[in-house]
Protein 1
Amino acid sequence: MTNQIEYTLLDPTGNMTILVTTPTSEDMQPDIALRLMELEPSAEQTGFVGGMEPDSVTIRMAGGEFCGNAAMSAAALTAARFGLGAADITVRFKGAGISVPVRVAASGSGMAGTVGMPKPISVRNVVFPGGMTLPVVFFPGIAHAISETPIERIEAEALCPGFCRFLGTEAFGLMQYDRDKGTLTPLVYVESGGTLFWESSCASGTAALGYHLLGGGSALHAAVSEPGGTLTVDSDGSSLTLSGNVRIVKTAKAEIRP
């Protein structure tokens, strides 16, 4: 049997994202995601859209994790489907069990977006196997470790799967931050699909960096330069927002064979 899958490819600050709009069973989603990412080699992640209304949309990431760039992408796709030049849209993450408010508005060839990021479950220093100690920010379904000491690419890639399993999370990000240059290099591993990507940008990782930089402070404004562009994080000490841009690249259909 062949399943015809409709999907949209979006570009949120270079973090190429596939959003599937054809209803699919959750047990098939990791496999469908891998096949679609083979068809779209620029894609770094896949989400599956459920209910879509002018002011809300439900999404489930292939690994069940929360993703800020996917939230921005889902809101932009919803606004486009309903012909809205600007909208406030609640994005619900099935699997992660959280909802975030997203504001999108037409900007140039795409949309500017601001996501009200969730507060972390916890922020704490973790001693990983091998003795490396890093601050880790835990969100539903994903944890991000912040390293201000450079880690070689090969070593970083080797560490991520084990660190993810050690923490018991669905996904794990290793965020390498250069405080002097204001640059962030995100590496993200998703356990269910075994995928490991040097991402062009990572919204939840940038938010994790924001919470790390905020510490006990009362305010934060930081423009973070990532390989795919700049994400801006702001906080008044009680809440944190993340802003960027998203562009719809194309909508297509694919034949997926079990």
Protein 2
Amino acid sequence: MKDYLIRGMTLDGFAKVVAIRSTQLVRRGAQIQGTTPNATAAFGRALTAASMMGNMQKVENGSMTLQIRGGGPIGTITVVSDPEGNVRGCVTEPRVPLVEKYPGKLDVGATVGKDGTITVIRDLQMKEPYIGSAQLVSGEIGDDVTAYFAHSEQTPTACALGVLVDRDMQVKVAGGYLIQMLPGAPEETVNALEEGIRRAGAVTAMLEQGLTPEDILGQVCGSLGAAFLETTEVCYKCYCSRQRVESALISLGREELTQIRQEGKTFPVECQFCDTVYRFTPEDIGELLKKI
């Protein structure tokens, strides 16, 4: 089953709603990074959140970077989304130890930590990117995205994320939803959504029961109802290329490239976001030196 997200509005027009099934892209990200269960859950939540946030941005050729530094054993989580919601990312330390809140429940907050910040960098195809940041509140990522929007972008938001890692250490289900209130939303709408969120419960439980993103938004929106405006397939997608790697190598400068060539060995460069390795022979390095 392919991953996709659905975007819409509550029928009263006072809230934007997005929901996603991200199981396959989280599996792919975990496979590339080689994450252990706690890191998979944390990284998967970040991938899921970034996909929804990137899709909501809707700037052609733009991008959205979500970076989380909480002081926990996973280090820094970095995820980049394109305007459709395709994502790629990496973590500092993928092999973190198993920590559970209780048997069968991974402690994502302890893995991420909360002594740090969540930062959002929006490339809106303008002269300078927009950069916003907020203090982490729990390290659970969903709560932190909610707090980020409230403090940095002054947008009342509810974000819920879930990644269920099975006993074989594979991702069983992953997904989430994001709701944002629009200016002028009446108290009745806010109360109805708060009640819907409580009634819907955990994202992982809904996904495990087989609920689709449409079903999840139906549960959360409740009596308000929702109009679905756009459905987009999303995946784990890296935009690396040999040309980009060449540009990065050229930026090292003549002295360092000369040293690499003099070693007389093939020089491998591995993309941090995917499992592609670009190999440069001494002759290839020589051609790059000519371009400097």
